Amino acid sequence: MADSSSTEYTNNPSDLPQQFTFVMSREEVTRVKNMARRFAPLRRNGYRIQVQFGATERIWAMWEHNVIGYQKFDDFNEPHLGFLTLTVNALEYMAEMGEDDYHVSIAVDFSSNSFTASTPTTSFTLDLPLQKQSPYNVIQHPDIIIKAAAADVARMGHFLDDIPVPLDEENLPDHVPFLEFSSDYKKLTASRNWAGWDAGVVSFTIPVTASQPHNFSCFPSTLPRELYFSDLNSCEEVRFLFSTSTPHLMFVEGDNWGMRVELGVEIAYKYRGVIERHLTENGVSVDTDPRIGFDPVIQCSYNDVPITLEIMKGSAGVPDYVRLSHTVLTDCPWNLDIATEINDWNNSWQNVKLVYRNNCLEAVREINAENIQQMSEAVIDVASKSEVVSQVVNIFI
């Protein structure tokens, strides 16, 4: 998910002219304002949104958690390139400027850092906020498409937005169950597992037409709410779009609106970031992943020994855990001498075990995922024992 704390702002970083104008209809003002109010925090004053200008359309984009929402409008007038950052306050003011059929003329002047909105009878001027340095990326090239009726998607959103267990609003947990989706060619099932709150799995299935089966999951905050509003956006069909080149992204689109959703895996979201930081701080080289909470497999190394950490979901009575492994030897022969050495090591080592499978000899250790402070010691343990095994086993090859 995007990190707003790292966003840098500059003045007019895009290709917009220093002075330009454009016109918004009442419908455009209302639709963008309504989405922005949902995406903004409770104290929404100063919340920033972005308008992107293209050759044939204007796109309004806004960010919340792991979702960028956007509204599209046909527009063949200039400017045809660039993006502008505004605050939700401007839309709130424009919504109060006239009757149902009014249009608002917008004048932007970067030289005076001003934004002026006018109707035939009223106008207001605001200082421009600091401008975001890059546009929100809402371009997609899907090769997996799932189509559903907007009314069915809205019902699914309402179901997923419901919380079937009592939660303390003053002390919400660090995370709540992710949304899990599974699609075959004809149906899409969404579920949430509330077992950690002494409840069960809840699921909802709708009919779809899919180009191929697909499974995905994501952080639960924004998506259910926006799915619930999907049938209010003047469309009959909603499309879930995926690309194998960007497996961590999903686009959800109607005819004139959409969402860019960063997908994730619940156990990766819960543990990966803290494990990466702990290992890095303790001398382990880590291949960090900029995709927050997406990949439960971490690649790292110690003393040039590569170690794989796979975060595993626990089952009933078994907590979440991390499996550390290193392939000591590939194409390793199997004979009595090697078998004897492996058994001796496995009998004497408490944590690291040697496993022979598919003609490979692996060193494996498992550790409770909550024991973050022991992860670096476990990596070093697997790496050092792997070096010993490699040296000894080579004698028998």
Give the helix/strand layout.
Elements (H helix, E strand, L loop, with lengths): L8 E2 L8 E7 H14 L8 E6 L3 E8 L2 E8 L7 E6 H7 L8 E7 L4 E5 L4 E5 L3 E2 L11 E6 H12 L17 E5 L3 E7 L7 E7 L1 E2 L3 E5 L4 H6 L8 E6 L6 E5 L3 E6 L3 H16 L3 E2 L10 E6 L2 E8 L8 E9 L6 H13 L4 E5 L2 E9 L6 H19 L4
Antiparallel strand pairs: 1-10, 2-7, 3-4, 3-6, 4-5, 5-19, 7-8, 8-9, 11-15, 11-17, 12-13, 12-16, 13-14, 17-18, 18-19, 20-21, 21-22, 22-23, 23-25, 24-25
Helix pairs in contact: 1-2
Low-confidence stretches: 1-9
Distance between the termini: 48 Å
Mean pLDDT comes to 89
Q: Strand portion, in percent?
A: 35-45%
| CATH level-two architecture of the largest domain | 2-Layer Sandwich
Quickly name the level 1 CATH class of the largest domain.
Alpha Beta
Description:
By secondary structure, the protein is of the alpha+beta class. The protein folds into 3 domains: 4-132, DNA Polymerase III, subunit A, domain 2 (DNA Polymerase III, Chain A, domain 2, Roll); 144-167 and 175-264, DNA Polymerase III, subunit A, domain 2 (DNA Polymerase III, Chain A, domain 2), CATH 3.10.150.10; 267-396, Yope Regulator, Chain: A (2-Layer Sandwich), CATH 3.30.1460.10. Helices cover 22% and strands 36% of the residues. The protein contains 7 helices and 25 strands. The chain has helices spanning 26-39, 88-94, 150-161, 223-228, 266-281, 336-348, 375-393, and strands spanning 9-10, 19-25, 48-53, 57-64, 67-74, 82-87, 103-109, 114-118, 123-127, 131-132, 144-149, 179-183, 187-193, 201-207, 209-210, 214-218, 237-242, 249-253, 257-262, 285-286, 297-302, 305-312, 321-329, 353-357, 360-368. The strands form 5 sheets. A 9-stranded antiparallel sheet has the order 6-3-4-5-19-18-17-11-15. A 6-stranded antiparallel sheet has the order 20-21-22-23-25-24. Strands 2-7-8-9 form a 4-stranded antiparallel sheet. A hairpin with a 4-residue loop joins strand 7 and strand 8 (114-118). The longest helix has 19 residues, at 375-393. The two termini are 48 Å apart.
